[in-house]
Each structure stands twice: as structure tokens, then as C-alpha cells.
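Retro notes
What went well: the complex prediction finally ran end to end.
Inputs used:
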Amino acid sequence: MFSRVARPSLAICSSARKFSSSSQNNAKVAVLGASGGIGQPLSLLLKNSHRLTHLSLYDVMHTPGVAADLSHISTKAKVTGHLGEEQLADAVKDADLVLIPAGVPRKPGMTRDDLFNTNAGIVRDLCSVTAEVCPNAILGIITNPVNSTVPIAEEVYKKKNAFNENRINIFGVTTLDVVRANTFVAELKGLDVDKINVPVIGGHSGVTIIPLLSQATPAVAFPQEDRTRLTERIQNAGTEVVEAKAGAGSATLSMAFAAARFAYKFLDALNGADNKVECAYIRSTETPAAYFATPLLLGKNGVEKNLGIPKTIEYEAELIEKAMPELQANIKKGIDFMSQ
Ligand code: NAD
Ligand code: LMR
């Protein structure tokens, strides 16, 4: 069993990451896969934010059109479109934050791991360029299978000598699991969703998604039967959307919302805002798995502290145990891919 006691903070950031801009709210954010189902609404949400001065859109198709369209919106961020491999370096140059939703989505009957063969190579190739051009930028990887694509990205950085063992700048975006948990709890309990926070730890697929309903704030009580049902709904929520879309892809709009929330938290923290905490999937020593999502305290340098696994009840500790084989296999698959 893993510790059920809240762990003291683990400082994981020591290098001086400088927000590349000198004044407030002038970040460059790049979206790789910007023309896709997630990329377009995510880019709209980013363009609508005061936190950016430059929104850089990269894809292998349609970016001139998406960029032209967004550029007419009367907010301050300059929009640039970059098309095809030869324009990737320019797209990510001087980026503070790079969000990666490039890759294929699931169809009904598929697991996220079934996307590995296509998406592993896409993430590897994109990260080869970010490792060279903007090695210090914060990377938010959305592309599935997240449990494997994050280890792939870190292995690329190691190969390119861009890996900093004292600083974590590569994150798997698991925010949608938190967003869903908050939504479902609010619906079930008739609470204001804006005031709810449910930590979701682990990974981003099936049993590796571990909502800690016992740690929701404000506290909510469930009979075990309801807790189990709700936990399973959160774990299967991606599949719920895939089936409802019936072959037309997976979650895009809710994912764009979640990725924008992730981006805003990081950008606010980089700009000096206090107390920004977000769960994300990172390399970790919290469990036997080399990568594990936990709540992270964000700051000017990215991650200030890994807040560790919150206190859990017996049922949740069992969920962590149950997640280990799949999570470790997914991580190994990513690392093995890069050692070929
Ligand atoms: P989509 O097919 O609508 O869009 C993907 C985009 O990626 C397309 O525009 C495509 O041209 C682009 N692309 C493909 N190869 C590329 C490359 N080499 N360089 C740049 N761009 C490239 O798919 P989507 O619905 O936007 O989903 C994208 C990914 O996000 C999928 O892998 C999906 O499983 C994943 N996803 C993750 C989460 C999460 O919670 N982390 C949630 C939803 C979806
Ligand atoms: C999700 O959770 O919605 C995404 O990971 C997409 C998927 O394939 O379920």
C-alpha cells in the first residue's frame, strides 16, 4: 500500500526558468495541432485571454486559414500560422508554453493505447524540435496515450541534451479528468461547480485515472456504492464521449476548456500569482510508476513543489494499487519506443 498520509512537499524546481518576457502578461503560446478538433477551440480560448501577446499556431494542414480567422478577433494577442515541418521551429521559437494536441483521436471500440502507433512518432518528432528550439518552454502534452507520450517526450529531451533533472517542464495534461470530476460531483450534490475541487491523480486512461473523492473541497459524503459508480464514470468519461460521437472523434470542446484552464494556471503562476495548484502527469517518485499525476504548486519557475499524493481512504489506496500494472506498462512502452 502506498502512503495514505499527505506527503510533505518535494521541491523539484531549482533552475532559474525565466519567463521569456520581461513584463506581465506577454507570453508566447504555441499550439501544435492547432487546426484539429481540440486545437481550434483551444486557440480561440487562448486568443480570448489577456495573458498572451503571441499565439502561434502550427499544424500540417489548414493553419493559414485558422490563423487568419482568429487574427480578426479584437484581443491583443498577435496570431501567426505555421504550416508543415519546415515552419515548426519558427512556430515554437521563444515560446513560453507549448500545448500539443497533435495526433489522431479514438473511435468507438479503441483504447487510448491503440493510438500509440500513430501518435508516438508525432510526439517524438514535435518534441525533437521543441527540445532544440525552446528547451525551457513548458510543454503540455494532450496527445494520447498521455501515459506513454510524456515519457516519450522526456526521452527525446534526454537524447537532445535538453533534459534538466532539476526541473520539470514536460506535463501530461490530465485537467479534463479534474474538470469532469468537478462537474459530476456538482451535478450529483447540487453544488456550485465553481467552488468544487476534486483532485484526480495517477494517469490518463481507464483504471489509471484516480479521482480522490474523499479529498474534494468542499467535503462531500458518498455511500460506497455511489462513490464506486462515480469513480467509474470519471474513469470512463472519455469513452462516454467517444461512443456518443459515434466515430466522429473524442472530446474536443471540453478538452479545449481543460487545456485552456491548464494554460491559464501556468501563465498566471509564471506571472507571479500565488497558490496556483493543478494536477498534472509528470515524472514522479510518489509510487513505483516513474510518472504519476499529483497536485502541483505552480510558480514563477513552473513547478515549485510536487504536493504529492493527498491523504486517501482505503478504497482510493486500492485504486492506486490497481492502476500500477497498466501505468507502468504504458510508461515502459513509451521509453522502449525511444530506445529502438
Ligand atoms: P483531430 O484529428 O481533430 O486533430 C488533430 C490535429 O493534429 C489535426 O489538425 C492534424 O492535422 C494534426 N496533426 C497530425 N499530425 C501532426 C503533426 N505531425 N504535426 C502537427 N499537427 C499534426 O484530433 P483531436 O480530437 O484534436 O485530438 C487530438 C489528440 O488529443 C488525440 O490524440 C486525442 O486522443 C487527444 N485527447 C487527449 C485528451 C486528454 O485529456 N489529454 C482529451 C481529448 C483528446
Ligand atoms: C478523453 O479523456 O476524453 C480523451 O483522453 C480522449 C479519449 O480518447 O477518451
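What we learned: Residues 105-106, 112, 144, 176, 204, 238-239, 241-242, 250-251 surround (2S)-2-hydroxybutanedioic acid (ligand 2) (CB under 6 Å).
What to try next: split runs per interface for comparison.
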